[in-house]
Amino acid sequence: MSAHTGQASEAGVLSADGAVAVPARARPAGLQYEGRLLTKSFDGATVLSQVSITFEPGEIHSVVGENGAGKSTLVKIMAGIYQPDSGEVLLGDDRLAGLSPRSAQHRGIYLVPQEPALMQSLSITENLFVGILRRGRLRFNVDWASMRREASAYLDRVGLDIVPEVKAEELSVAQQQLVECARALVHRCVVIYFDEPTSPLTGKEAGTLFEVMRSLRAEGYTLGFISHRLDEVLAISDRVTVLRDGAKVLSAPRSEVDRAALVRAMIGRELVTRERVRPHFDATGRKEMLAVEDLTSQPSFEGVSFNVREGEVLGLAGLVGSGRTEVAETIFGLRPTDRGTVQVEGRLLEHRSPRICIDAGLVYLPEDRGRHGIFAEVEVERNVTAGVIPRLERFGPLIKPAPERQMAKEATEKTAVRMTSLDTLMKALSGGNQQRAMLSRWLLAGPRVAIFDEPTRGVDVGAKDDIYQLVAQLAGQGLACVFISSELNELTISCDRVVAMYEGHVVAELSGAEITDASLGAIIVGAHLR
Amino acid sequence: MTTLSTSPVPAAPAQTAGPGAFRAGLGNIALVLLRRREVQLVVAILGLFAVCTGLHPQFGASSNIAFILADSTTIMIVAVGQTIVVLGRGIDLSVSPMLGIAAVSIGFPASMHNLNIWLALLFVLLIGIGLGMGNGFLVSVVGIPPIIATLATLTIYGGWQFIICGGMSVINIPAVYTNFGGANVLPGVPWLIVIGAGVVALAYVFLTRTVTGRSVYAVGNNADAAFRAGVPVRRVLFTTYVISGFLAGLAGLVYLCQIGSATSTSGSDGNTNLMSIAATLIGGTTLLGGRGGPVGSALGAVFLSEAAQALISFRFNEIWDPAGVGVLILIAVVADRKGAPVRQLFRQPFRQPAKAVK
Question: Looking at the complex, does the CB of residue B230 fall below 8 Å from at least one CB of chain A?
Fold first, then answer.
């Protein structure tokens, strides 16, 4: 409890009479909050460039865009979590400099995170008032009674019918999200952001959240909403801003945009369409290398079937959450299979694990390179040979160093990894070179089928082209490739066939000239549902 | 720097150090070498030796050197096992009772029935493997966090050691044992340290040149990535605990040979747990796993022994010893610039995103 007393005393300083420890930041609902020319980059990659945006009181302003378009970064800057590299934020007429999450809250700005961040073993009351615990009459005690009363009132306001004594861990995700929202009100915040709040919610739960948002709007709060679900955006917004590749491409009142316009803005590409990496390859009649039949892993996806033939590049398109990565992980034995089969070269793989898949000739380049791919503190050489340690040339039980080095050398030359030497630590390489090193790891395994999950993520533009070339070259040598990407243009220029997923189901299969950015874009955002 | 222009990353010296950093200049080479913890330790060991000998000439006597080395052997062998566990991002807090159980289990038959020393060796190794398998089972099969699993077995094994002793102590070890414990190969080089060095060399080869050993680094560095690369993560972790038990068992025999007696608190009274972890950390292996090696730990063990001996020769009471060890651990961790900040130790393991260098 010592933490609480500390925070309480701090709040007490701000309070005039000591009874109600609400800092003097309470202001009438409704403040204009503006970001001007915000720019932010991570690890040298620009994720937000010169974006200006104004959130008006009494409005729900949605920010939409594909994954990686910069939506979350923008909102996190507005909420003080990130500092912009350049640009400024203005609340009303005040310029806010050096904002932190704490000072943002003091100024009345609150971000409801995607995953609720409540203290699970504390009561709802404590969660709501943490940081501004009320003091009781004795000055050093905590006035639980008044806080509980007020907590109930706030919970009512966000439509939560729960007792404030329950612990946060007993609530569902949807309820926790509403508690976060109530927390913003308790802290007298008037600018509230919701970062993809609906992704962990069911349709009905999302409906409740929208009700709350609408009532807050009616009271004049300034609301920001992030989503990639266009239905929601169209239903609730007063104004919509579209980001693409870190830049603002559209900002208009809801009445002036429709679904088609948003889709165009979200996926529209530069006028020069890039050329295909290699001509369309019709693999009909070639050997079937990977056959996935009725694969199901609830709740992520259901009844997914597709096949990949020798020398073919099959795209797997869909939004994040559509189940693409989950399908790949299930094939590779990283998630439980509820039903369905996976065959590699006609051989049924049962009880799949990465080792079994690798030995059968199937490899999977993971989406999150940092977490699932590289060994950051280990030399490049050993990163590259990590997938084939049991197959290294040995003398008795001892691995021979020279052939291993030769192997690593050849493999890294093939993918053109740029590094000081094979002894360089993996973490010293740029994103693109780490990805190339990962590719060489998998090439060493001698795969017949390869699943590339977002192979160009966190890779600079020039290096992206090299990776497309490499995939095409491998396919040319007979490798059956599955290419998963959020960037539609990548799929358009690289794939011979594309399977599109929406909400856990395969909804379309396109081949040859049918594959265009526009056709893919329409399918993955669910245009077929209309 | 111009020779490195192909690298897209502005080469950060600390990260490209190692055999690959062939920047010209003897001074640079020396600097690169000095960044290696092993080299720093050798310098520290020799430096401390020189200072102590200068002030107290008897510190440099071959008998004193032999004592320091023999004294460090037990901890050295245990620390090598500890290092292997820590490299896999685990920790083994049960090494002291494993050592103790091994020592008393052969100590009684040795003193009463004159147990053959080779049979004794076989027994301690089997005992160590068995106890290590217990830890490995709890960590890799049941899935209990290492610090909790081995804290539990620390107590369980410790109690067991007590039961085995049944209130008695091992005394009157046959001369075969104690003679071996006191024998020198050369003046100043005891046989025990030869065994210790052999263990270190084998561990080094194991870690760098065998399939399982190499997998330990991968698992410790990034268990998720290792699993996705086809490494049998659980089996590898299991093996690290078995090796730790095996070496703690061997250390039990070494202990018996060196001390000549054993009790229900052998191992625990010498603070084997703390000392083995201290040697590991001082030797440059990080608790975050995946980086370090047994050579540093062995040098760490020697340094600890030497420092303890130095305290004595400067007429400090030996009750200052544990405090000194603590200070050395702090110095080792703070000096570990390459390592992650200490606060990362308190983050959830396996979920720490490995970021590319900026």
Answer: yes
Put simply, the chain B residues between 202 and 221 with a CB less than 8 A from any chain A CB are 205, 209-211, 214-215, 217-218, 221
Query: Which comes out higher in pLDDT, residue A487 or A188?
Result: A188
**Partner-chain residue, chosen from B210, B225, B232, that has the shortest CB–CB distance to A397:** B210
Contact criterion met (CB < 8 Å) for A354 and B215: no
Q: Where are the domains positioned within chain A? A: 2-267, 274-361+447-530, 375-444
Do residue A420 and residue B21 have CB atoms under 8 angstroms apart?
yes
In this prediction, residue B196 carries a pLDDT of 95
Cα–Cα dist B169/B263, whole Å: 5
**B94: helix, coil or strand?**
coil
Residues 287-316 of B with CB under 8 A from A: 290-291
Percent of chain A scoring above 70 in pLDDT:
91
| Smallest CA–CA distance from A374 into chain B, residue | B225
Q: B3, B32, B209: best mutation site toward chain A, by most A Cβ within 10 Å?
A: B209
Q: What is the pLDDT of residue B9?
A: 35
**ipTM of predicted complex:** 0.73
Residue A60 distance to chain B (closest CA, Å): 34
CATH of A2-267, one of 3.40.50.2000, 3.40.50.300, 3.30.1330.40, 1.20.58.1120: 3.40.50.300
Q: Are A38 and A48 a contacting pair, CB within 8 Å?
A: yes
CA A370, distance to chain mean position in Å, is 14
User: Would A2-267 and A274-361+447-530 be classified into the same CATH topology?
Assistant: yes
Higher pLDDT, B138 or A3: B138
Containing A231, the helix (H) or strand (E) segment is helix A230-236
The alpha-carbon gap from B354 to the nearest alpha carbon of chain A, in Å, equals: 5
The pTM score is: 0.73
- Using CA coordinates, name the residue in chain A closest to B349: A371
Class of domain A274-361+447-530: alpha beta
Query: Which of B207, B222, B291, B351 to probe by mutation at the A interface, max A CB count within 10 Å?
Result: B222
Model confidence pLDDT, tens digit, residues A405-463? 999 999 888 888 888 888 888 888 877 888 889 999 998 888 999 999 988 877 766 67
Classify residue A478 by its DSSP letter. T
* Chain A residues inside the 8 Å CB shell of B357: 427-429
DSSP E strand stretches across B174-219: 184-186, 189-190
Diameter of chain A measured on Cα atoms: 84
Compute and round to an integer the Cα radius of gyration of chain B: 21
**B38-339, CATH topology level:** ABC transporter involved in vitamin B12 uptake, BtuC (1.10.3470)
**A433 inside 8 A of chain B by CB:** yes
Q: Report which secondary-structure segment, H or E, holds A224.
A: strand A222-226
Tens-place pLDDT, residues B168-195: 999 888 888 888 888 888 888 999 999 9
Could you give the CA distance from residue A129 to residue A397 in angstroms, rounded to a whole number?
61
The whole-number average pLDDT for the span B104-111 is: 93
